[in-house]
Amino acid sequence: MPALTAAKKSSRPAARSVPHAPELIFGDLWEFDPAPETAEPKLKSRYDLFINGQFVAPKGGKYFDSNNPANEQKLAEIALASPADVDAAYAAAQRAYEGVWGKMPGRERAKYLFRIARLLQDRAREFAVAETLDGGKPIKESRDFDVPMAAAHFFYHAGWADKLDYVAPGRRVAPLGVVGQVIPWNFPLLMCAWKLAPALAMGNTVVLKPAETTSITALKLAEVFQDAGLPPGVVNFVTGAGEIGAAVMNHPTPAKIAFTGSTEVGKIIMRGLAGTDKKMTMELGGKAANIVFDDAPLDQAVEGIINGIFFNQGHVCCAGSRLLVQESIAEKVLAKLKTRIRTLRVGDPMDKNTDIGAINSREQLDRITALVAAGVKEGNALYQPSCKLPAKGFYFRPTIFSGVSMSSRIAREEIFGPVLSVLTFRTVDEAIEKANNTAYGLSAGVWTDKGSRILKMSTELKAGVVWANTYNKFDPTSPFGGYKESGFGREGGRQGLLDYCKLV
Ligand code: NAP
Ligand code: MG
């Protein structure tokens, strides 16, 4: 391939100048060739609604654009559903539940789920590219995390479908019926898999609304459902903004609704459904504490802290957005963190070397910018590397605030961006008190050499997940969900299945 190499080299843009030491930024040293799919992604120019096994035009005839947050270019048009389309989707789901899916033996449903998992694996690269283009996350994350984990959820739940008698030992379980689901934009395909796989394994049928800015991979998943021969109406996708989400949640048909998104919207939905007998699960916001004790393996902890907050641009409900570090090692840890974030590559998400990709939307970028400005105004010490950001698209430098107090907005509010607030503590009890002093309770991290301390912390921290000497690790077998304003109900594992069935 020497000719190709030569041709590629000649088309490279001129190398950027190396910034002055000591601010040596790896991201500014090299330019890489664009990935081939950047120019020609396998996307349709228009995506219709997916109702009753078919792609159908929205009744109102309207479409909206889905853009690439990395360069602000239009990727495709997405159907704007109306309440009449939501009615049609629920009618299809009801027919599919009563006519086919609800009465199909679990061992037969399992075959469809296995097929979906395998087809998703077959098209893994295509899905990873679509996810990165539509949402802005680095390709190495969509390739190595989102898509394989989505397939893993279908495999895992396929394995359960013929063993449902063991979900609640001593009891028999039955599906609930039709389920309405609404998901956010931070893990578009993975959230589909988290929500759909347990619902389908249990024998329910679904109407799901993806987030407005990231509908493409859900609609590509609909293609997989068609290829897998999934009976029409078992899964229906309606696309649009918050009003359509509200129409999905408030519709009379579903026996259960499942929502992942902000606490604010979760509360609106719960108010709307108060007094009904619908079953609900809510996966809401978070403000996790990543707690580092003085006996922790520090370099490993620094990697965990970086992964905890900068993974997926901090667009992670369980992000370790508060670092609680023991006072005696605070300076050392902060110095290591500053050195480490200078080496993070911020930029084109399609570049496989990128660590921090694009912020999902201008709206979210504005929200992050405003909260960081509030953090500065409150007198917290800000550190950002001076890396160059692409001229077009939505980007935010990795940011560390140190000397943060508990009352500061950046210690209390979910920023949902690559921003870490560093606080200190002296004793174990103070660490627990500070970690729990939040309205949220989704996750936490503990870094220490002592097993007994890990056990104490995991018992006393009011968080659905506590990672020990690691962070942001997921597995379909492990239930995920919150305490307090982070929601209720679990996704994953046997516990997740219990939220999609009734005991008979
Ligand atoms: P969001 O504004 O609450 O939106 C989530 C979804 O709800 C979107 O599909 C949205 O539609 C839709 N929606 C908006 N208003 C609605 C309404 N009144 N009724 C029904 N649906 C409505 O949240 P986001 O900003 O997209 O996502 C970030 C939030 O999700 C963060 O707070 C994060 O912590 C949380 N999250 C939690 C988990 C978890 O497992 N706990 C996982 C991921 C994210 P449009 O986007 O089209 O407007
Ligand atoms: Mg988009």
Structure commentary:
With 504 residues, the chain is α/β, with parallel strands linked by helices. The protein folds into two domains: 46-284 and 486-503, 3-Layer(aba) Sandwich (Aldehyde Dehydrogenase, Chain A, domain 1), CATH 3.40.605.10; 289-468, Aldehyde Dehydrogenase, Chain A, domain 2 (3-Layer(aba) Sandwich), CATH 3.40.309.10. Helix content is 40%, strand content 17%. It is built from 17 helices and 20 strands. It has helices at residues 2-10, 36-39, 83-101, 106-122, 124-135, 139-161, 188-202, 216-228, 242-250, 263-273, 298-310, 330-341, 362-377, 409-412, 428-436, 451-460, 493-498, and strands at 46-47, 49-51, 54-56, 63-68, 73-79, 173-175, 178-182, 205-209, 235-237, 256-260, 279-283, 289-292, 322-326, 381-383, 399-402, 419-425, 443-447, 465-468, 487-488, 501-503. A seven-stranded mixed β-sheet has the order 14-15-16-13-12-17-18, with helices on both faces. Helix 11 (298-310) links the parallel strand 12 and strand 13. Helix 4 (106-122) runs antiparallel to helix 6 (139-161), helix 4 (106-122) runs antiparallel to helix 7 (188-202) and helix 11 crosses helix 12 (330-341). The chain is globular, with a radius of gyration of 23 Å. The N and C termini lie far apart (65 Å). The structure holds NADP nicotinamide-adenine-dinucleotide phosphate and magnesium ion. Residues 182-186, 209, 211-212, 241-242, 245-246, 249, 260-262, 265, 268-269, 283-286, 317, 414, 416, 442, 482, 486-487 line the site of NADP nicotinamide-adenine-dinucleotide phosphate (NAP). Residues 182-186, 209, 211-212, 241-242, 245-246, 249, 260-262, 265, 268-269, 283-286, 317, 414, 416, 442, 482, 486-487 line the site of NADP nicotinamide-adenine-dinucleotide phosphate.
